[in-house]
Amino acid sequence: xxxxxxxxxxxxxxxxxxxxxxxxxxxxxxxxxxxxxxxxxxxxxxxxxxxxxxxxxxxxxxxxxxxxxxxxxxxxxxxxxxxxxxxxxxxxxxxxxxxxxxxxxxxxxxxxxxxxxxxxxxxxxxxxxxxxxxxxxxxxxxxxxxxxxxxxxxxxxxxxxxxxxxxxxxxxxxxxxxxxxxxxxxxxxxxxxxxxxxxxxxxxxxxxxxxxxxxxxxxxxxxxxxxxxxxxxxxxxxxxxxxxxxxxxxxxxxxxxxxxxxxxxxxxxxxxxxxxxxxxxxxxxxxxxxxxxxxxxxxxxxxxxxxxxxxxxxxxxxxxxxxxxxxxxxxxxxxxxxxxxxxxxxxxxxxxxxxxxxxxxxxxxxxxxxxxxxxxxxxxxxxxxxxxxxxxxxxx
Length: 396
Ligand SMILES: Cc1ncc(COP(=O)(O)O)c(C=O)c1O
Known about the structure:
By secondary structure, the chain is α/β, with parallel strands linked by helices. It has helices at residues 24-32, 53-65, 81-95, 109-121, 136-144, 161-169, 193-206, 229-232, 260-270, 279-290, 293-319, 343-352, 382-395, and strands at 39-40, 104-107, 127-132, 148-155, 158-159, 176-179, 209-213, 237-242, 254-257, 325-326, 334-338, 355-356, 358-359, 372-376.
């Protein structure tokens, strides 16, 4: 039978690797943000109050007036030399280690760094270990290359490294281990210094690469952070970073820092994604960082998020019934709630009451998380936190 426009169903032609439904998780979260009436604890978005509109406008005008063609031209795949120098200087001052020229790549956001690592390392059926729960975008990236995603639990001190060691001793052989050590998404916890040391030793012993996602690292409420995994063990770690939560996500800018051999492979992979990250964003960030403006913005952002986080915890303490538990973040955007009963049902009913939260199962690759909810305090108006949590508590 001839295919008519009415009978055509493209789904039959979709690639196998797109069939795991891996692409739906983030769309579901972003969908919740569409309704301005909702009090939204859903998206992990930076507060627009932190966006440097005036300074960005000033820099744009300067770049244009100076006839700086590099801001408007295609950039080298590895990134503009000046931007890489500014990023390397930042890593040196914040993490105590400066990547060599061939150990650093500019990416289009943190998510592209993860995509490039995934594309470079994972064949269908390869194993990647993640924290359970973990960032939805990472699960999606790994799934889209048909990897086997195995979750190891975490607790208040981050990834349970003893549980990981037991899993490895029992024979699991991952190529990659993905972790968000600082103010984790979605759990809001931070990996302890002792566990960091133990984790890099496991990577060396078992021969896997650690993918360290530092999306929230610079947003500790008190400005401090334990040593990064990459600075502890640059031989077995590739660090994926982003300026989305510290500068603004509209520029889609990030980095990957790791062993030269790995970075070369990522540069090669990038040639068949976007070929280069946007030069305009690279130049803006470079100038913004060189003038110390990023540090000023960070100081204000930390204070804002610390206030919001503290208000959230106070509201939870005041309103939640016995039997409900939550994590106490020391930075970042998130607290992770454990409720008695079906969290997805709570999230559905909360939406009916004008409050958006994300059900926990989305953050696991294996169906766990059914009694968890992620609360993001980053974008909700400070004054609405109390009323939002009161409504949620009434439902729990
Ligand atoms: C842990 C984590 N990694 C990476 C990203 C992606 O950031 P980007 O906007 O740089 O792609 C996010 C964004 O929410 C995140 O939470």
